[in-house]
Amino acid sequence: MTGMYNIKVKLILKIVILSLFTFSIWGCGKRTNYPEKIELLSDRQSNELGEKELAVYNRQIKINTQKKEEKNLKASRFLDLDQDGIVDAYDSDIDNDNVHNLADSHPFDSSRGSEDQDNDTIPDFVDFNSIHPEYAALQENIYTQKDILVICESIWSNGDIFTIMESIQSDTLLFHRIKSLNIIKLSEKNKPRRAEYNVDWKTISLFSKELTNNKKLINNSFFHELFHVLAIDYPTLYNTFLKVSPWIVTRDRYGNKKYSYKTKDGREYSFTSTSLRFDDKTNYPKLLDDVLPSLYSLQGPSEHFAEAGLATYVDFLINKDRFSLKRFKNLELFKKTQMYKNFLIFLNTKK
User: For residue 54, what pLDDT is reported?
Assistant: First the structure.
């Protein structure tokens, strides 16, 4: 009896082990890797969705959480609320109501957010009539003439707002050429940088931390970003810049851009697209050759382009009072280069 009992126990154990092994194989083959964290809309945002948009949003969430295997994925990077083929992160009009997200009080709801009581084509949400009435006419003129909407968050002073608007109105060299810019936003966010250009939303944002009450710094940062816009609008100008620049652009095996800067004496310094600063900042002065108008130009080819364009633009102006030339320590040498001459030709060419 004892022998039979032992045989039965062993048999049962084998069946259990085999079952567990089979189940684990099946589980490994069938398991879906969900994102550990998905940043969804807040309760307030989801409550503001229209019925149609909410249905689309929920359907997309369900589909994509089953398919995506990336971790820490933000929903807006794969959702397309209005189903126009552009994911929300890169869509300047998420709800497809013909109002830019930054000018829309309800960017997730196409039935609301475009209210315009005075019929000046500027949504009430960002209309200076209610928040900065003294500049309302100027805001409307810029929007009508240049198709660029200036919007502002509360922290900015009237003087700072006027600085931006005065610069736009008085400029005769750049704004008639600009195409890929719809919004100029005076943001109350504090970021490490002073300004940035979002090519997808066609927006220049200026950040308040270092810029408030500093007219020259505001204009330097603002017009630097304008040259980032021009690099998109005029690719021939940017490619011409690269040909006479010391930058070599390649890609690694993963497709990431790699930048190398070659000095006149043959030394080469390498960057990656995510880290454009030199490890040894003591090399900065040594690298400041004639094609670099400023040290900031060493941040990469796109920043070099913007700095070179800004230096040429300010030097070209008769009245330079609105800008600071302190950052362009190498300006006199830079003015002798072909790069400077190319930017001058561009500025002198009538559109």
Answer: 60
